[in-house]
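Homework help thread (please don't just give me the answer)

Our assignment gives two proteins as sequence + structure token strings and asks us to describe the second one. The first is just a warm-up. Here they are:
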Amino acid sequence: MMNNKVLRFMTAATIVGLIGLVYWPVHLASFVWDDQVCLHIAATLRHGDGWKRYFPSNFCGWHNYFRPLVVAMFATELRIFDVAPGPMHLVSLGFHLMNTVLVGLFTRTLSSESDTRNKSTIFAGIAMLLYGLHPALIEPVVWISCRFEIAQTFFMLLALLANAKIERVAFRALTVAVCFLLAAGAKESAAVLPLLLLLFDWIKADSPQKKPNHMEQLAALWKRQWPVYAAVLGAGFFYLALRFAALGFLVDTSNTPSEALLQRLQTVAFTLLTYWRLLVWPMSDLAPTHLVDPKQFSTFSAANAGGDLAVLAILLAGVYGTLKRNPIGYAILAFTIALLPVLHILPVAFDPSLYHERYIMLGLALTLSLLPRICSAISLPPANLHRITIVVFAVGIFWLGIAVLNIRITLPLWSDEIKLWQWQVAQDPRGAHYAKVNLLALYIDRNDRADAHKLADEFLAEKESCLVCMLNVAGLAMSEGDLEVAKTAMTRAKDAIAPRTDTTIWQSFILNTARMRELEHDDVEAAEDYRNAIAMDPLDPKAHMGFALFLARQGKVTQARAAMDETLPLWSSDVREQHRERFERTLSASIKSAQHSQMQRQP
């Protein structure tokens, strides 16, 4: 018994160590994308008690999200690690490794009763390797803002494992309900846990010794598990009450474009097929965004019809296989149920991309956990089984080799934001415009004027105005004193503003307006605009910095220094000094200009 436990431990430790080694460069990665905006620049979670305002809702301007657990994690880590990205990346990697261990444990739990302990250990090790090194999970490991996905998967797996292993019904019900609540507090898609509990309870009830009819199985299942289901239902209602109290609604669909039923069904079918492709072969098309033209789903074509029929066949096979106690049917249903929140079944616009690789995280874990049952159900002659085993082993080694290579090539691309968006432009032309919008802001921020002007000219030449593009073009022009281009860009930006424009973008528009009025020497209105921008988000360092620099350019030394004293603590410690130096240069130049003007006026 002891030798078996040691073998299991050593196997798991070796696999976890290997995965950790492959991903180790992540500790050198920086903040990218939402990380940069929501964790590095914004002071909401790290300055004073401002985190209390964003703990329940509206973190990073996310209107429909209620994710207090991970927001609390971020607030804690930002303060402990002083806004250093490396340790936060290692926390995400730690969660990924823990999830890998949970996949191994759940795989052992689901092993067939006929499997030996060594066989169960082998299957658990294979499942851990495939999960830990699956390239679709690169994004959530390297992108800190994907912690929601990783944490939710952790608590979902913990709930399913507790449900399968804990014998005492009261303790089992309490543990599963708490895990459900924590998973929901990490991400809303935890709502599928009750369905997964039912499915895996059905799977666990499968016994080769006796085959009672379905009604008898359901009756036995209800008798054993009704306290768990009741506890999970109670936890669900408690979560909904918390969500409503925080947001004022459960789901806001007011900003969702209407779609015909046919279009929505074909969108669902396409998305599900894409996730099935990612499950098996995730080695290509791993760009950060996946923008798909929705018009292609509004017509009934041969390609769309083929996809619809394929999805229907797969789902029917899953239901039929599950009823007939076929493990492949179990895997189909488990993977599909895990994906229900991201298949665009409900008319809720939550992301401009149609799909993301990271969304298969839970479905991948559950599918791999069923490997022992799937393999046990395969019955082949010994000679054929031997040859097939060799072929599968060779294919598996090749797949893992490509996966490791993929991870090590992709990690640096996710580690620097300019590389990330340049990769997007090269990888997926459909998302090139979105990537270029981000690149323009980055080039301006890093003072890469040549590349910034190339993109600015490209955006100005477009017929349709992009609001964020025009704001960045205007900002670039104003930083160089080109008032004519700035006015053109701001006019086009104003025309592009929609009634429900994001608050952050509105603030940027007001800040740009303030700077333009300053260049036009309308100092009274400029000051008012700067103050309005600060009022929109009192913890935004950019708005405070704009006002402090404005006062410095006005030569109002005392007021400027007071404003800068309020601004500096809002910047993260790694950029605080460079902003202080920028302020001092601006103030010094203003004082020298005023002295020079005074000397010229003297007789």
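The one we have to describe:
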Amino acid sequence: MSFGSATGQGVRGPEDARRSGAAKEARGSLAGPVPSIRYTARAAPAMERRANLMTLAAMIPTGLLLLALVGGAGVFAADGARVIAFPYPMDYGEGPLLAQTRALGHRENIYRADLTSPPYTISNYPPLYPLVLSPVARLVGPAFWYGRLLSWLSIAAAATLIALIVHALTGDRLAAVIGGLTLLAFPPASYWAGLYRVDAFALALSLSGLYLCVRRPDARWTVPLAALLLTAAIFTRQSYGLAAPLAAAAWLLAGGRGRRALALLALVAALGGALFGGLEWLTRGGFSFNIVTANLNAYQAGSLERYLADVWALMPIALTAAGLFLLVAGALRVPSWRLVGPYLIGAALSGLTIGKVGSNVNYLLELGAAVALALGALLAWLGPRRAVTTAVSLLLALDVALMVLASPYRAVTHARLGQLADARRLEGLVGEAGGIVLADEDMGLLARAGLPIFFQPFEMTQLARAGRWDQRPLLGDIERQAFAAILIYAIPEVPLHRDRWTDEMLQAIERRYVVSERVGQTLVFRPRRGG
């Protein structure tokens, strides 16, 4: 057999003998190069070690990036636990939402169209978030912890969904983990996660609908279920009606599923329209007045510039990388861009509304999710390009460390957590007032005590300045000293009270009330003796 020598059975026949001799002669003629073969054999381990070192060197930046992101997740968890356990208000907007939760639990209308009589309050958002929490409020009473817990879990769920979306788009597990953890390190998301506010829940709902469209685009139940989730996000916070529905439809359309994309948008529009019409009818026009008219605040370009400058200072590399992915990956037709690109564009457009008077970093939450998606998709796309991936990972690791360590929002959180004694003192003042108390930043103390909120300063002030609410009845109450106490949060360097109270209100308070004490940053006004 021709393979006999290979099996060690010896040479057979004259032909095999001649072949064997020829082979020996050939081996003799190759005697010179043999040492080079032995040299190559000795060099192989060295070459392997060098390749391993190069691989290890390439992995170090990625390891540093993961280490920074895990550190950010640890900070997210630690700060979230402290905020959830803190019993007093952490933010101006928590009090009204807690009051709305309690009102919905008692089947009360939170969208009043007629504000000619008290209470002078506004419900800025659709009802889903307080509605979900209202059964808990009925069971355990008014408290901030359950709303904060829902928000914190929602951000954690949003991070998980980002990872799942990146993995479904790219199949890259490492890039998926990096994308998900990036949201937890994003300073506005980490800060807002622990608050009794609607935004985190809306983000989780919208990303759930988006993930369904990516993971199961052809399943029969995908379009109706995704439409339901996207609509739920919109009826948690109305600004979530742009980025996620746009991205979901664009993804389906780019995959040759035009009919499903149209069906998704049509179903979201139909569900949203039906809910809007029903709530508008039930509240006799109060729903649109509260969530639309009362939200049309003045726009300040300077405010937009300040917020964008703050975010840019914290994460310039991440924003640059996301922008480059948006431009370059789209031009090169990278498959993941078909979802990430539209979502990033929609989130950026929604984020521009942060320039409205009274806006806060919650307007950037969806943009943070879009940046996280873009970074995950970018790293997956760059994966085979080892040198570029190494450089990008190293720069992002430095950027994430800056986000976590230099975030000014963490300083705000820790400052409020350090005001426990002041909050207790103010709670005591509210309980001992013996009458109606007005408050701005500390309005949550009223809701926590189960007391009605008589007046929401910021919202009503903006309506008064826009000519949509007559403040004269309230001014008359101030002049008559109808309030047992008025709590005004006043920081000389940041005059928030000028946005929260009209000049006429402040002048009437100064005439008819006197500062009895200062508790932290809060001035406590009591009726002036002798009128």
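TA reply:
I won't write it for you, but here's a hint about the kind of observation we're looking for: The chain is about 65% helix and 5% strand.
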